[in-house]
UniProtKB/TrEMBL annotation:
CDD domains: Tryp_SPc. The keyword ATP-binding does not apply. It comes from Dactylosporangium aurantiacum. PROSITE patterns: TRYPSIN_DOM, TRYPSIN_HIS, TRYPSIN_SER. InterPro entries: Peptidase_S1_PA (IPR009003), Peptidase_S1_PA_chymotrypsin (IPR043504), Peptidase_S1A (IPR001314), Trypsin_dom (IPR001254), TRYPSIN_HIS (IPR018114), TRYPSIN_SER (IPR033116). Keywords: Disulfide bond, Endoplasmic reticulum, Glycoprotein, Golgi apparatus, Hemostasis, Hydrolase, Protease, Secreted, Serine protease, Signal. GO terms for cellular component: extracellular region. Residues 1-25 form the signal peptide. This is Serine protease. It comes from the Bacteria. Gene3D superfamilies: Trypsin-like serine proteases (2.40.10.10).
């Protein structure tokens, strides 16, 4: 009797665990949990299915692999100011120009700036790391991408924390790693990671003044959250000067 009851309880727990929208949605693969409204005001969702971070009121920093090339582009819609992409209080603005990292060819240099047709107000921007000082420790990642490898895009912003992985370790998993252009993060055991659709979004941490600072841009990985395959991020500090001068050329 006790054994049978146990079996029933176990079956119920198992069933609830796979029901979408119940316990599962709160904490899915990628080890994410829901971000609170306003927690990461700089987070941007881009209509091509990428993330981004508000660099200035008119500029969104994202990944080069999320955009075509440099030039006039009015085809991207940015959604800002909400964790719920369907919220009636969301801000939506079109792009008017894309600047892709010069020399981008699919290996490294995975950054781009998108200029918005009009500046957004009332949203904090995310400063970028200009030195290597913060390329260590524990990072926060966030995005509306898949909550599991091969999974659907998310309506609500998910967040997770991932530890820094040294290039010397990451290189064992990814011989193609470009150590100066890329920075890795994730647990050896897997389970927590960014995934498809998170690309272009920021990886960030606290700086010496306890303010958020961007150290990475979601770039690539082997699957998502697999053991011994950390996420690979654009190493923002390497490109900070190039990003700043590109931003200035775009009008700030
Ligand atoms: N390239 C993916 C995208 O376009 C991001 C993949 C990140 N993968 C990872 N395992 N961290 O959305």
């Amino acid at each position: 009797m006790v054994r049978r009851l146990l079996a029933v309880v176990t079956a119920v727990i198992a069933a609830v665990g796979v029901l979408p929208g119940v316990a599962h949605a709160q904490q899915d693969v990628v080890g994410g949990t829901r971000a609170a409204q306003g927690e990461f005001p700089f987070m941007v969702r881009l209509s091509m299915g990428c993330g981004g971070a508000l660099y200035s009121p008119r500029l969104v920093l994202t990944a080069a692999h999320c955009v075509g090339g440099t030039g006039t582009n009015t085809g991207i819609t940015a959604t800002l100011g909400v964790v719920d992409l369907q919220s009636s209080s969301r801000i939506q603005v079109r792009s008017n120009y894309v600047y892709r990292a010069p020399g981008y060819n699919g290996n490294g240099k995975d950054w781009a700036l998108i200029r918005l047709a009009s500046p957004v107000s009332g949203l904090a921007t995310l400063p970028i790391a200009t030195t290597t000082a913060y390329n260590t420790g524990t990072f926060t990642v966030a995005g509306w991408g898949a909550a599991r490898e091969g999974g659907a895009q998310q309506r609500y912003l998910l967040k997770a924390t991932v530890p820094y992985v040294p290039d010397s370790t990451c290189d064992n998993s990814y011989p193609d790693l470009i150590p100066n252009d890329e920075i890795c993060a994730g647990y050896a055991a897997g389970g927590t990671d960014t995934c498809q659709g998170d690309s272009g979004g920021p990886m960030f941490r606290r700086d010496a003044s306890n303010a958020w600072i961007q150290v990475g841009i979601v770039s690539w990985g082997n699957g998502c959250a697999r053991p011994n395959y950390p996420g690979v991020y654009t190493q923002v500090s390497t490109f900070a000067a190039a990003i700043a001068s590109a931003a200035a050329s775009l009008g700030g």
